[in-house]
Structure formats: C-alpha cells, structure tokens
C-alpha cells in the first residue's frame, strides 16, 4: 500500500474525486486519500452510485455518507432509476463515468480515483480474450487514462484483492459486502472464484505479469493508432475508401474497422466483438462490388463499389448476449436477475446453477431449436410452440430464447418454461424475470 500512497502523493496536488461504493477496495483507497488530505489539505469529493439492483443499496449509501461526515469530505450521490441498454455492466459503467464527468466539471477537478486493482485487471483481460475484442480491449485498463479533460487514476492496480483485505484488517477499516459478488451467474465472479486462484498457484505475482502484458498491448495499440492517423483519404465522415486501404496490412485494416465501430456505436460498442469485425473485413476484401452484412442493434454494413459505411437497418440481426444482471432486448422487453418474487407465470423462471452450464445467454431463435417443456415428455420444436401460441411471424425472429452455455434451451420468456424450472420453495439460486 506504500507504493499506492506514493503514487497519490506524486500525482494528486489539489482537489480529487474518489469513486467509493463502500466495499473493501474503495474504502482502502479512501483511507489513503483521507491521510493525504490530512497532510496536504486537498479537497476530497466522494462519488457514490446506487445501481438500484439490491435492497442493501440504501444502507450502503448511508454508510459512505457517514464516513464523509466524519472525515469532512464532500458527498455526491447518484441513483440509477432505470436501465435501457442491452448489457447491464456496460451501461452501469457508462452511467458511472458520465457522473464523474459531471462532477469533474462541477468542481473543476483534474483527477478521479477508482479502486480497480490487479485482480480486476486480470479478470478483465481474461474475459475479453474469451469473448473476443480488439488490441485495445485486450489490454484491459491502464493506471492512468484520460477522459473529458480530467485523468482517471487507479492507484491500487499493482495490488491484489488479498493484499487490500489484509490492509483493511490491519488498519481497522470498515466496509460493506456486496453479496452479488459471490453469485456464479455473473461472469466476472466465476473468473474471480475459479480461474484466478489457479493462476496464482502457478505464480503468486501473476498480476504483475498481466500488468506488463497490458502495458505492452497498449504501446502497440498506440503505435498502430499513430500510423492510422497518418493515412490520408481513408476514413472520411464515417465512409471508408476501400481502394486506399485494400493493400494495407491486415492489422492496419482491422484497426481502421475498429475505429469505424467506435465512432458509430459509441456507448453501444459492447455489442461488437471480433466476429463482427471479421465480417466487415471479409466484406471489404471481397470481390463483390455491392453487398452488405447485418450487425447488432439494427445496423447494416454496406459496401457500394469503392465505399463502405454503416447504416440503420429495418431488419433485426441475429443476436446473442451473455446474461448477467439485466438485459434490454431487441423486442423492447427486459430480462432481469431478481432476488425473489411471488410470481409463478411464464414471465419468471427459477433455476439451479448446478443443473445448467453457466453462463446463460439470451439469443434469437435458430432453425431446429427444441425445448424440453416442463411437465412434458420429450422435446418440442420452438417453431411449433410459436405457431400454437399464435406469435406473429414478424415477432418470432426477435423473441428471446434463454439458453445455457451448452445451448440447452432453459426458457422461452413469456411462453414456456423448460424442465430446468424449479417450483416456488424448491432450492434455486437464479431467478429471472421477463417484463
């Protein structure tokens, strides 16, 4: 923790915003900042976000607020009332950083501190490797990054979770526990519980190796970015000039495509993975002068002779989202992980994580889809179920199908439950609600 404190002393000279959830990581960071405040007199603004998915959130707000009052810190609070994106984690992150933008402007503050540590970096890199990402994405996050006129600092990036917990214990630092951090339904939790411990058995300092790996990728990404910036007449107003890129190395073309996705999708970039990038790359390199590909969020990539661009599409592309806490679906409905409910309709399903292969996914239907309907022998075609339930043809391609990682259909929300459904009162650790 001495190294983290030295980093703060070297970089923070005036006011600072501290993102604080009340958990062990952010309270450890806050304790360092409080020490720095006592020594230098800097102004400290504590930013607390209520993600509004747990009943404990209100008491956690009070916990952080009381700490601010006790230590003469400015308390700023935001509650997220509703979500409207496809991916809960990414949307929550976007909301958090928009809140930081607002506070940095309000207090004319040059620094925002977050409590991301070495284990967080390992989890992020591993998850993106498995999912597929860009060179920049594979690097995870850096110790210092720039955003909207201020710097985001991550002083704990060299520390492990265990080291932070030990620091809290030795210094009598109180914190709250988010119980959802232990649920296997969340992908990050599974990496944290089952994969990181084995990596640490190989090398107790493996987090330092991941940090070096992250920095190396960032350096290569910056180099490629500078090269792309030096190119003329390649990407103008979102339109790609194909003859000017077709003879470039593949790695450069891929970076240009990623830049197009970044510019067009903005805060919905999490819907894009390396498969979508490859679709566009193959289209650009194709001999067909006029063709297109369907992409997530109602977007179509269109090649017209020597030009390529993204346009809005009236046709819904196939989709496949990992189910974490909340998903807003292409049909306008939502699926949310809830703690409990008294409902027992087809809009709710109760599952036991030991009977399915996590993570769960929500996808569009496929040809040949079959489900073992609860209470029935054998399986039925999803197509026949749609017909029996008189689902309009135009709605069927958008209708969500919930599957496990072995592609077993566990639920057709609002229509049919599978044999995996548990009754009220039976043991279950996953409850999903469709609304």
Description:
- By secondary structure, this protein is of the alpha+beta class.
- It has 3 domains: 2-213, 3-Layer(aba) Sandwich (Rossmann fold); 233-312, 2-Layer Sandwich (Uridine Diphospho-n-acetylenolpyruvylglucosamine Reductase, domain 3), CATH 3.30.465.60; 320-434, Phenylalanyl-trna Synthetase, Chain B, domain 3 (Phenylalanyl-tRNA Synthetase, Chain B, domain 3, 3-Layer(bba) Sandwich), CATH 3.50.40.10.
- 38% of the residues lie in helices and 20% in strands.
- The chain is built from 13 helices and 22 strands.
- Helix 2 (24-40) packs across helix 7 (161-170) and helix 10 (250-265) packs across helix 11.
- The radius of gyration is 24 Å and the shape is globular.
Output the keywords.
435 residues, alpha+beta, Rossmann fold, Uridine Diphospho-n-acetylenolpyruvylglucosamine Reductase, domain 3, Phenylalanyl-tRNA Synthetase, Chain B, domain 3, globular
State the domain count. Answer: 3
Which structural class should the secondary elements be placed in?
alpha+beta
The CATH class of the largest domain turns out to be: Alpha Beta
Q: Identify the strand order in the major beta sheet.
A: 3-2-1-4-6-5
List low-confidence stretches: none
Instruction: Specify the oligomeric state.
Output: single chain
Helix content: 25-40%
Number of contiguous helices: 13
Radius of gyration, Cα only, in angstroms? 24 Å
Query: Main sheet, how many strands, which sense, barrel?
Result: 6 strands, mixed
Q: What average pLDDT do the residues reach?
A: 91
Per DSSP E runs of 2 or more residues, the count of β-strands stands at 22
CATH superfamily caption of the largest domain: HUPs
Instruction: Kindly identify the CATH topology of the largest domain.
Output: Rossmann fold
Report the portion of residues in β strands.
Answer: 15-25%
- Per the principal axes of the C-alpha atoms, what is the gross shape? globular
First-residue to last-residue Cα separation: 46 Å
CATH architecture of the largest domain: 3-Layer(aba) Sandwich
